[in-house]
Amino acid sequence: MSATVTTPAGRMAALARAELILLGRSRSALVTAVFIPLVLPLSVRSATERMNLEDAGLTVGLVILPAAIGFSLLFAVYSTLVGAFVARREQLVLKRLRAGELRDAEILAGAALPATAIGLAQCLLLAGACGAVLDVPAPRAAHLAVVGLGLGLVLCVVLAAVTAGFTRTTESAQVTSIPLIMVSMLGSGFVVPMELLPDRLAAGCELLPLTPVITLVRGGWTGDLGAADALRATAVALAWLGVGVFAVRRWFRWEPRR
Prior knowledge:
This protein is an all-alpha fold. It contains eleven helices and no strands. The chain has one domain (9-251). The radius of gyration is 19 Å and the shape is elongated. The N and C termini lie far apart (43 Å).
């Protein structure tokens, strides 16, 4: 009797299906992943309508659209996965999975697939809604938006794993995810575009993890982002990704914290 041959894709798909079922059973996770990202852009609109956007060459739609995508990345992907990683660790699920065929990277990637898919679907839905409701034109440099969104999805998964490594309990996951969420919302161009910030403050905020994502997405729609600025934003995002991968390998915990 021959042994069943499995592939990394098949193993991750099976884990993703199981994780999707668990996600559907958690009301708090569904609210965080689905409801909050769809509501927050409404609060941004009231704030942007009072800004002087014409001098920066922006419109209300070109501010809200990248912000909406950023909210989806933060809540549907990052915040949801922090709670999921911690919960599976405390339930000894991660420990049992490591005893099987799954490799560490496959476990994290498979567990992250449902939240990542939800985040991607939300980003596409919100981009279409902003285009229809706020008269946002089609992206002039779509490749920049695609690169920014792709980097944002991967980066949020890695940052969620890093945060989970320093989170003791499932209850505290809602607290440990707040610093990155607040810093990103205030300094990464979600509410106030980088073009409206003082030069020194903007230079510092450009180094935040999600600032390159918002920069690339907005630049993809406006078409005003130069090649040098696009490369710099991509380099910052890749640097954070490298630091995040190192931190996951060094500090991610596979067993409950005692």
